[in-house]
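User: I've been going back and forth on whether these two constructs are worth ordering. Before I decide, could you fold them both?

Assistant: Sure. I'll take them in the order you sent them. The first construct and its structure tokens:
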Amino acid sequence: MTGETQYPVQDEKYNYKELRSGRKSGLLLHISSLPSPYGIGTMGDAARDFIDFLVQAGQSYWQILPIGPTGFGNSPYQSFSTRAGNPYLIDIDLLVQDGLLKKDEPAQFDFGADEEKVDFSLLWKNRLTLLHLAWERLRDNKVPDLYEEFEEFRQAEDWLEEYAVFMSIKSAYGGASWTDWPDVLKRRNPVSLAEFMDSHQEEIAFQEFLQFLFFRQWEHLHTYARKSGIEIMGDLPIYVAGDSAEVWTRPELFQMDQDLKPTFVSGTPPDGYTDGGQLWGSPLFKWEVHEADGYKWWIDRIRFQMRFYDMLRLDHFRGFESYWAVPYGDSTASRGRWVQGPADKLFQAIKDQLGALPLFAEDLGYMTKEVSDFRDRTGFPSMKVLQFAFNPNDLSDYLPHNMIENAVLYTGTHDNDTIRGWQEEGASEEELAFARRYLGLNDEEGFVWGMMRGAATTVANTVIFQMQDLLELDNKARMNVPATLDGNWEWRMKAGLLSSELAQKLHQLTRISGRLAVLR
């Protein structure tokens, strides 16, 4: 094997470290939002430049969103696999350096003219075609050392073939969900699967190749971050997309009927923001089956994710204590009901097998004493959002004077307004007046950086800022509006904005709030 890349097998024992103690901060920026001439941010030079910026700014963390392959709607929280990486994030220039592409080949494809938005339709059309050229060059053995590394990767990853077969069948049937495949493939008839694999060896190998490229580039990028003293914070969606390799291969782990249709699906109840609640539509776990198996599937999932990250956010943490179950086929989430989740039993099983892990809980939304007590028993840091603090009629737990040390505090997340967007259109005049009085905001400092100061100077051990807020961008740069489909996940940062002046400004805020990373 060449280079720094290593591909540990899944049953290897890992030594996980505890969450770093002390006051730290970092930035939230998904890889897809990095600047790139190829339509979407990737794991190439721009990612390394961003890590260098974090170091210059005195930061400790780079938080990203889930990195799995995405489908309809382009949401990183709805992936075809809990293990595979998104081929869109593979860097093209690195493939040229590896000899898999010729220097002039990428210029033959259109990836979109808007440098501030991802055009996913063009990516779907052209990115995979370009990557196929790279595969043909490797397949024809024009880069022998890399082909040997590819074969080692295939041997090491016991999940890879099933995923590649899943994606190949999907491709053969025009991208259709596995529930719409011919019954023999939908139900994984061994003879039919073997026949398909025999007649589609090329496509299956191509899908495996894409994962080889992703994992190879990710390992190199992660190594660069670690050597720079930057830890990468990942994000684990609680639910698995219905159209995924995991549900296709293990339907018995999910609430499905004999026709392989979900009986109940995920969502959240109606609230002040959505009359019908949020209907996510993912199949729910059959927790009694997981418990009977000692939660092995979940233990393997967490172990695998910790190959990617140094810290991991558990999305929709409250769903582990109790979850909102919506009858399959409903058009809204309003008829759902709360059902008890696995809670302590799951996380005790994970801890018994993997030890203490650097996890923290996304515990936003409808909280109960039971959920709060459950989170406290795990010891996981809580998640707070400063934008939610300034209701003048209700002294919020998110106000700085109510903050706790064992917390990860955000000014806003990918699901929120940017700070400037919140100031201009998201907040009421009463909220803005309260925020100005409470934080002592002034025109010289500016509203956005005053809010960031308000977060940085709390007692919360960890503070995460959005890159959009450093750039003082409005809601045109917002990543996602929950319960909507169009226009999400598209924002990209323009090239040339990671200036030394901006890094020094953040460095100063980090220093005065006692969060400066110690070079190590």
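The second construct, handled the same way:
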Amino acid sequence: MTTDPLETLRTKREAALQGGGTTRIETQHSKGKLTARERLAILIDEGSFQEFGALATHQNHDFGMGKERYPGDGVITGFGKINGRRVAVFAQDFTVLGGSFSEVQSQKICRIMDLSMEAGIPLIGLNDSGGARVQEGVKSLAAYGEVFYRNVAASGVVPQLSVIMGPCAGGAVYSPALTDFTIMVEGTSNMFLTGPGIIKAVTGEEVTAEDLGGSWVHNARSGVAQFSAESDAAALGLVKVLLGYLPQNNTEDPPALAPYDDPYRQELSLDTFMPAEDTMPYDMRDVLNLVVDAGSLLENHEQFAPNVITAFARLDGRAVGIVANQPAVLSGALDLDSSDKVSRFVRVCDMFNIPVVTFVDCPGYLPGVEQEYQGVIRHGAKVIYAYAQATVPKLSVITRKAIGGSYVALSSKQMGGDIAFAWPTAQIAVMGAEGAARLLHGKEIAAAEDPEKTEADFIADYKERLFNPYQAADVGQIDEVIEPSETRLRLIRALEVLRTKVHTNLPKKHGLFPV
């Protein structure tokens, strides 16, 4: 009997839609996880998804693979639209052989990555895989290498977003680490090079997968992930929001929204916002939310190195990257992790033509033996390198402290900063007043009848003469001392002027980033 070709095609397509079958889909749901196709239905605009490679299957039947073959081989790849903008996407299907990574999976993912770069559209990976397909041996290892190579090639060309929606172990973790942003789902996702079983066998340590590589670990401790979400649906919603701040590729500007917040809005509360005592903390988020377009602040790395805030926001509808010291944590001092956080974020903004606005209230780098032993010099140099290399518009607002090396590193004129503003409460100096008084007048203090009063007088004198923004303004290091309430308007006007900024670095293969 002759088989109807059209019926054969329909049968194969139907098999691809079933994934690993009803039982495995139910198991996926019982863990609080959606299937790959359910995730794509949430992420991609309805009716816009065009799948590729739906009928591809593995070629190796050895080592227990058996005769059963699954169309798609555990990954769905294709193109679609998110809020009307084109994207390339792949979604691993844990219901098919545990989503294990194979030669065919690599071929499909690499194909969509190549097309993403050629078309100049963002690449989104939904990761949910038990790791390399052991039955394929070295083929699966080589398959990972093909993906890593393309991650590096695509870096700085198109935005790359990784969403960890299940296990991600072994070699699989390197691909998300090479992308621009990693989002993890709380309670159901994890990332680690070696799992709990291997760690116990080798070191004797007992640890759960969640404690070893769960969302909290990588968002708050390791810094591997930039965002955390409560559920699959929330993570996919976050992808949509994040893409709204990013361009399609490095040759375009980020999408601008129709202005919805008055650019002339002045927040008079900022004029009296700063605490009377310069040692008193305050929450920099309160300042940022009053300056940027209402509701537009999207923090990046929120739980990691909280002494610095990095975030996307909008000013008059246009995307900007925000770097801000957080005086409520460690007085806003820079340290190892916050230096990494700042440098990475500035580089991402520079890659994708997003202006950087820096709010400075920093007493300097965190002192300590451990900081020095762990390389705070090297990590701090990353901040300098990132700002100096960035060619996008760079604006700064010094709200209070800008002391020592932190003043230089955080978007100063010497780092290529375009426009520098300061509030009247700004304190710009080589070092803190207490240390300066002791350094400059130590002998006089020691010889005084009342050393404490004499030291206090020298401190007060130093603050009055040098702890203000006007000396910096006199020599052109600060462009303007502004009223805090006019910060929003000043930034919007400056960004409007700098929108057509043209600047290129000297031609070279690449520099030596202080890794």
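Notes on the second construct follow. The chain has a mean pLDDT of 89. Residues 268-431+468-498 form a domain with the 2-enoyl-CoA Hydratase; Chain A, domain 1 fold (CATH 3.90.226.10).
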